[in-house]
Protein 1
Amino acid sequence: MGQSSTALVRSCPRRAHGLLLGAGLLCLGLTGCRDDGAEAGMSAGDTDDGDGGGDDSSGELGDVNAAPPVLHRLTEVQINNSLRALFDAPNLSGVSLPPDFEVHGFSNNASVRTATPYLVESLQRDFQRLTGELMAEPGAWLSCSATGGDDPLGCGHTTLATLGSRIFRRPMSTDETQWIQGLFDTWYADVGFDAAMQLSLQTLLQSPDFLYLVEYGDAERAQGSVVPLTDWEIAARMSYFLWNSTPDAPLRELAAAGSLQDPAVVREQARRMIRDARSRGAVLEFHRQWFDADEIQNITIDPLTYFPDSDDEEDPGGVIALFRVSLEHEFNRFILDTVFGQGTLEAMLSSRQGWASDITSGFYGVSVEGLPGDRVTGRFGGIDEYELTLYPVTFPADERAGFLTSSTFLASHAHPVYPSPVLRGVFIRERLLCQPTPVPPDDVPSLDEGEMAEPKTNRDRYSAHSSNPACSGCHQAIDGLGFPFEHYDSMGQFRMQDNGHPVDGSGELFGTDVDGAVNGGVDVAERLAISRTAHDCAVTQWYRYAMHRDEAPEDERAIAALAERFWSGGGEIPNLLVDIVSSQAFLTRSESVQ
Amino acid sequence: MNRRKFLQSGLGGLGSLAALGLGGSSLLMPSLGRNARAGSDAPLRFVLFYTAQGTVPSRWRVDPEGNGAGNDWVSELAGWSETDFSPMLRPLHAWRDRVSVFDGLGLVSAEADGSGFRHERAQAHSITGADAVWVGGFPYAGAPTIDQLVAESIARADRYRSIELSVSNGLAYDGYGSVIYRGANQALPAIDDPRVFWDRLFGLTNADDPITARQGSVMDAVSERYASVSGRLSAEDRQKLEVHQQLVRSLEQQIVGLAGASCGNEPARAQQYGDYDADFEAHVGLMTAALSCDLTRVASIQMGQLSPDQLGAPAGDVHAEYAHGIYDDPAAADVMTEYGRVHAQHFARILSMLDSIPEAGGTMLDNTVVLWMSEMADSWHGFDTYPAVIAGGGGRFRLGRHIHYARTSPYDGLSYDKDNRMGIPHQKLLSSVLTGMGIPTDSMPVKSVTGSDGSSIDCTGTLAELLP
């Protein structure tokens, strides 16, 4: 089943030229359109191959404007990565901040991250603790011993001048240098070298120059309301987007030399940064938020239904806790394998390769016997140790295809006992198609089962939505995407029967370039994998994340230009990231007209 | 089960407070009560208890004296037997002289503010009395919530302005994950993990530490830096940094104040996190300690969705499978009645914890106003027959009363019985609570709503039945 639908769709010349919309749909009707080689999908537009060679210009991205930026405050992970890099202290404990509110799943949306009392208090407290840790065992960043050596004042001054510029991500001005050195002098006279260093570092780390991506741009080169960023500001934007961390030495050298004004240099650096291991955490963070992957930690699982043999189900170390943690590891590996392997959105939505553990392989119906296992250890909530063995597996082609058929998605969009076609459908609509679901009407009728004798299947229970005229308009769009996943229960187990009755996995896609009848989750996933609508949406999501805000009407052309290149280039995610950082939207500020 | 064990061993049980050293008068911070009532040394505090899913009106409403739903009336709870109490509120029978119960308020302004998003609209209106702000097509609270308004007036500048707590991640429907707002579209995050709460309250370094003692001068320097950076930014960016700078300034006082505060025997730090009842118990224990030591004067607890096993119901999803069916399905109404009753038990638990601390000739409950509010009026998405309970405050409010209002607001909202009127605007309750707290308030942001018949529905004024 999977084979025919895969080949059918893959072999369509969807990426050949500009004539793209509707290609997938057209294809569905053509029975001859199959089996002429899997290469068709990958043949066109692969000029940016990730090696930095070939035609690597930003092309039409160069002159497209964007909406005014919003001031971004570093996230918890960005602060902690920065601290570890600045002080070369990989084991530094880090700050722990109040949670950020999510917008479209993204917790880096600057519009809602106004500072709160608890945040400011947490920063103060944690930096006080961390600077204590740092001075207890200072590294090479301190140009003398922890007691100040022979020339404590000189050491303090040198250290703060050097480190200050690193912390502020740009050379400090003379005034700024004198400011922090003056504070140090006062504290040194008062409480001695060690404490004065701690207090000075606390001051630098709580400054807006560290905590916020403060950008003034280069006003002298402004063209109308478009102000080019300085090299230092570009370096900071790039490194926090691609690494969630502060710029490294090569990037700083280029910034100091003024080289980052050249988009070709920016692209070359972006490729280098994506190849660097530090991009893995940042890429993963994006996908965790986009795909709501952490939701698996919060859902309620009904043990009587799904873990009947276990009596320690929710204990730390119990089987449900392990199930959650296993899915987390599997998701992380799958995303990283995909982005840094084949690299395409198509692979993310249709690959049969993935990971399973002893805990999850049963749910997936795959055998891990004889496979080379990869042992991972960790701690639940940082306390109780666990150990898991993960296996690289090939999932049955007619049951699984990419992220949408993983338990990470399926189980976190389900109720404790019954899967939820609504939650699944809404997720796909909003996150993968960027088509927000209209709100339910004021008067939501309850799912009245009175007219229908005892519902036979889960689908029957939900079908009331579609048959009630008050609900059917929206629910067709939602359920048409959700019902095909009825082949998966609340844990994501594949099933042909529900409550003793055959599963009806038929559905329908609306509002995309691949509209039409679908049957089963694999069919939906493979259809979306080659959908222009889904590719465009992925670009919008990355754009939201990169710019720390929702898209605005002024961003339309910037996003369209990125989307066109993403699609015509075969949907390669690393290339999209290079395009984003070298786009005008990323390299300039559009100041709002006052 | 783990939960039971934990309750017995941890902070659970009424007796454990004394064991934790919270019961002794040595803990009390004398003469801090600038805002306290005359004759009392203790400061005034405020606790907001916020639950989701409203009520089952027929299981909330009772009328043992036969006064009639169509009339306004007050009945003294002192004469009520336990079975006179409605099934949902029976856990409050023991507290009948310390609580007043409302029946017949309406979220009229929420009904009039846009369409769809009923959970979100109710949430935004219920504890602000203000219209929602619509951001990207979604409604968020458009003004400070009542606890923040109270904090504005009674919080000490040198202590925590307010404490936001949640159990099982609360049940905010607006997507931000917290129902408490400092201002329009400015939600405040809540602490869900009691261990994190403990660390915040008691993980402080001591004041004698030279670095702690100099945090004031660090804050000065940081604040100066914010001022010099923000001067060069665009208006929007500057505003953000100004908020941050202002918070840095307030923090300066808080650090000094907290470093000097002593709380005597601290409650133990919880060992675990993630069990609904155990987390609630630990939160309430720590909150009680924080209030009694004057580490803060304002706290809120937002309660997450109860699970079927807490309600004695078959496994499933409470919201999807029961909440909507309260009018059509007696079994669903039973489950949701139990839902309300369990929360009434939680509410009673807060009262008993506060009441276990002797203070200024009475107990801490006499100096703490505890308000129970919800998002919607009922879980069928209705906005009428909005439930509320107020407790404590030692004479600031007329307690021991069941206060019923007839439907008199000519607004034809969504109602199961198709009545074209609603109860009296809930803004009057919010104004009354603030007034009773010593913050004279005649109106909330929404002052009137245009009724379905074109008349103006007055949302101003206070409730004479509640205020002495």
Protein 2
Amino acid sequence: MRTLRAILTVVAKDMRGELRTKEALTSTVVFALLVLLVFNFGFEPGTRDVRLVGAGILWSALLFAAVLAMNRLLLNEREGGGLEGLMLTPLSRADLYVAKFITLLCILSLAATVTVLLFIVLYNVPIGDRLPLLATVVFAGMIGLSALGTTFATIAVRTRTREVMLPLLLIPLSVPLLIACVESTSAILAARDFADEAHWLRLIVAFDIVFLALGYATYPAILEE
Amino acid sequence: MPPAEPAALEVIDLGKSFGPAVALASVSCSVAPGEFVTLFGPNGAGKTTLIRIAATLARPTHGEVLLFGRDVRKAPELRRRIGVVSHRSFLYGELTARENLTFFGRLFDPVGAEERAIAAARAVGLEDRLDDSVRSFSRGLEQRCSIARALVHEPDMLLLDEPFAGLDPLAASNLETVLRGAHESGKTIIMTSHDLAQGALLAQRIGILHYGSLRYWGECPPDLQATFNACVGGPS
């Protein structure tokens, strides 16, 4: 109970700081919007094309915007040495991972909500009653990205080439997640029977569990050089 | 006969290497509860590394550090008994001093965190600036807030890495008063310093590190400069 309260204290502090500066959230949403606009102008996709390439466009926007948010979030911790300050508290390093994961998930989920709505409007997506299903897939994808991103952003933020290092570490490992997310989203946009595509969602959930467990187990060693 | 009180800090054969570079080589020393110790040494001597390992911010390559008789790596709850001030403030610029201090206070003990935050701010003369954003602070104010953060959970020991660095004379004098008060209240204080005169002012015992080795450990000698030069190979 005490640990949970401490984790929530860290998350509340992170969210308060973020809502005050809106650094990560604003840059993420603006970047996602720009990616959506560029693809829109580049392809001028009609409703039929959206069913074919829409999922790829949406997840490209979400992934690159997420990288931006991860860098921003951990950089804030790095600037004043806040992460080291947290390491001096009785909260275990593994619990710090949980706190940072929840914060990142909150920010990415907020950014993803805006991005998906912009995607639906800009691409005139006839989503209908499949919106909750799309939201489920996007949220499950954000859990996986947050699980990986918390670990890799903590590594990357200590390097001089952090802007390059994070995507270099994150994107190759997130390929299975992205494939599963794009396939699931594609099935939803094309209004295919999702029961036939449920294995993609199971893959996303498996990815989430594996990388959450790995992050939780390895974070203490990552924090201490 | 009551059992002997364990040392506040006991360093046993401590070593730390970064690849081929040796930052600390088999350092051993012991600090009694309530003692004020200053570690001197030129840049790269290993002072910061020693403080970081004692504070559990870094892992030693070999050896161990006991805080109050226990290995802090195996007993993380011991972090409640130490407060750390480093080159970096460990504060969040976008939050106010009150929010920062209450936040760290809550992580140690949620009960009475706000009251302890105010008391810590008062101890460093920061009570008038509690509701200002840390980003708006000068270096001296930020350092004072950082010390308040280290005091907010009422630790038994303070680990201070170059706490006077970058402070103007007035801020340095204020910090000296705060440290004197903390020491008089029974806290163990271990501090690193470049400045021999400043560092020796409050110290009951000093250590001189050079190339990761502890070259001197004992009471402050009458001619500290000469001892320092002899240890680090400076002009005699």
Protein 3
Amino acid sequence: MNRLRSFFLKLLSWLLPDSVCLWLLHGRKESLRAALEDALAETLLEVLLEGMSLAFLLLRGFRRNLSGFSGKYLFCTANGGVALRALFANGQMSVLAGESPDYDVAVTFTDSAALCRFLFSSDQDILASLLANDVTVDGNLNYIYKFGFMARDLIGRLSLAELVDRMLARLRTA
Amino acid sequence: MTPVSLKDLALSNQKRSPRVEELRKAYFDAMPEICCERPLLVTRYSRKQRLLDKTAISVLDKARQYRYVLEHRRPVVAHDHGMGRDLKPFPVKARSLFAGSTTSHFKGVPIFPEFLGQTLWPELVNIKQRASNPYFLADKDVQILNQKVFPYWMKQSILERCRVRMNKDRADQPIGHRDAPEMVLMEYLVFYLTSKGNCISHTIPDFSQALKIGLRGIIEEAQQRGRAAKDSEQRDFYAAMVEAMEGIVTFSRNLAREARRLAKQTNDASERAELLEMAVVNERVPEFPARTFREGLTTVWICWTSIHLENPDVGLSLGRLDQVLYKLYNDEIRTGSLTIDEAMELLCCLWLKIGDHVPTVPAAGEQLFGGTGSNQAITVGGVDTQGQDAVNDLTYLMIRATELMMLRDPNLNARYYPEVNPPEYLRRLCEVNLNTGATPALHNDRAVIKALTSKGDSLEQARDYGIIGCVEPGSNGRFYGATGTLLLNLTSVLELTLYNGEHRHTGLGKLISKPTGDAASFKVFDDFKQAFVAQASWIVDRATTLNEALGLTHQEVYPTPILSSLFEGPMDKGKDLIFGGAIINSSGATIVGFADVVDSLAAIEQVVFQEHAISLPVLLQALNLNFVGYEALLARLRNPEKTHKYGNEQPDADGVARWVATTLDGLFHAKVNYRGGRYRVGYWTMTNHAGFGRLSRATPNGRRDGESFTSGMTPVSGVTPWLTSALNSVASIPAGLLGNGLAVNLKYTPDKNHQDKMLDDFVASVEGYFDAAHGGTGGMEIQFNVTGHADFLDAVKNPQKHDQLLVRVSGYTAYFKDLNPQMQQEIIDRTEYDLATGQAVQFSRTA
């Protein structure tokens, strides 16, 4: 079923203009917008990963990031509240719940605000993250750099960059 | 000994030529542009030859790779445009006298995906708009790096390969805790950093062979030795030398061909003549011996830019150019085929070429440690291998070129041997410091030679030292010393001692090292010192273990055939530098936070153990609260009249300084590196004292949370009221403990109305510091900022008005505007002395 859905959505991405594909992502974009506006939302990571997953199917340009890429990411909160895995293989991304010892990189963060800073940060926020010591990484850092590019690329394509900047500014003054 | 024939040592008539003026203006106008040429060629070749799948890459594989890159680089004779800060290209009308460039851009950012190039990945889309030191990157180049370069190196970068090597037996560790503890400690950022993830060589090549026999001579010798070699590894190494050198020869020929092509196209006769002359030079060198000064400089330049294709631009240095090029210069001056004007224009063009690239620094790096150039040191003056005065006319020309150009790179370092080099030479060096405000750094030969011989270098090798990167001394062209391999935050040792193996940055309650005793349990200061040594030993073990693992990773996949071919030792030994091919094979650690730790230890000794004014637990409480509620204690700890401070000739505090230096020298010297050499210790901090300081909590010397540490081996700012005492304290630390160099940063108040008097006092201060009083060697190194307090404050407010303001950080020079705010503040807050009185000038702290 999933493979059929993926095939269908990818087909749409070839048949439809980008603007229509972006419109199809509207629901995810609004969820992401809502999660970003409330940077402390526990759902941010899940919304981001799900949105990214769908964007890979619908946006041809964005999908180029997956070409030849395979990787296993584990994201979890320090208190054990959230554990999500993002798996990249065969030109697809899937999101799974729960921990697994099989990962290329594991990111442990104290809260969604820390994760926001870590993923989207401008200069000062990276420093804030370091000072607060609120994100730790175990594994291959190059996977984090790649993920950082994809996350920012997605935010740009969804025209959410300004919102992210505002959110980061708010976190700085919080 | 080479007689100086110049009548005016200042070369006052020499000005920047119109060509140099135009190029210099473009240099300052240009925004650095990320260059994809090298990473794309390296990746393409590596994929084609399946190098990325290999667990080990041979020196021959590497050499063939670089030959491919050198032969396929676009030959750029001259850049016709630079990238403006408004993100629009602007024309560059003048042409340098040297063809070729480090990257494909007028001012480029080289990318090494094998090292830390991928740290820029998340920023690629908006790197041209980032707040600190943005780089231009065209949209198409974003996609090249994102799709055609970085993905292939995700599992191949040095740091990642090392991580996998160290984690081999850690698969059973809990989720999130598989990385080796040595690596995790580095990622906390407050304990130590190792540069091997970003750097393969921090040294000085040997240009003398390339100049004397040309690369063809090196090729022929390598071929001969290869035929005679009995084992296959040696045969491969010599074959690799041939491949690497042939690549450089082709690169230069390609430039010559391009110059001829351009000459054919132009209708301007003088332009045509210039291009044809360039073609003739590049057809000749570096393949064959240099016959003229210009050919000599071109040899150095072409070899230099080729070395940078193999070695990331992290403090690789050029050495004693006034010595290796002097004969070529002097022969031509004597025969009249070269004028001083022409020589000066050539030098100025070379100075600009050397600075044609900036290092790759990600945003977080800019925030913590930003503002650095590539730190390419040039050394002038001093003595020759026989101990004779080596200052010559070319020395003065290079000093004048530096004065005229006022550039961050190259980083000029001047050697001075008291009573051997002439006093007028020292006076000239001080004068240039007054005129430029920040350069050159001055090195006392007597102390440096003692430092190097103490570590086993022969007297001749030590006398032939050059400066590497910031301030590190190493024998020219034969010392593969990796001088910047470890940066140790010494305040973390103090922290682990105070908190019984825990660190406030990583959280109290979490054991980081090993317990060495509760603070309340220390009865006497010696107990405390013992715990400090145990913690220092623990952290030195961890840092060197990581460094060794990185070194072994280099051996596995990153031999350096280009540099090995231009170095003394590998040809004779038949092995690459990375396997110990050099004559001298040490590693270098540098210590951050020296003076803060010394003053903290001195304070603990006096206030807690001698006077019993407070207990150690109370002091810890004050530190945890950042002295809030303990203002009286803070005032006492900061007051040099009440609490002992290093830098005031106070015997207890200066004794602690010597004890700390002796302890660290002993701990590091006991370690043998992967190339068979030993570790040497230095005290220069670049901008790391600001970065580490920002991440660190309050310290017992009265430093509050997040404040910068003090740079290099300089006494803490604001606690040393007298210049002479400050210099004498520093000079009292034996040179034999300082094998990896040191930086002492001083700030003098400029006095434009009494320049001559100020110059007299300036010279006297250096002479006093270098004076071998009391049987010692005198102080080893000193560097200056001579810019007024008000000018610094104005430069913070109006950076564009002061965009060429050059400052000494701790080792290298930087443009003040490029430094992060904390580093700017650290420079502003440094103790400033009025040379007329020798007393510190009082300013209200602006932080």
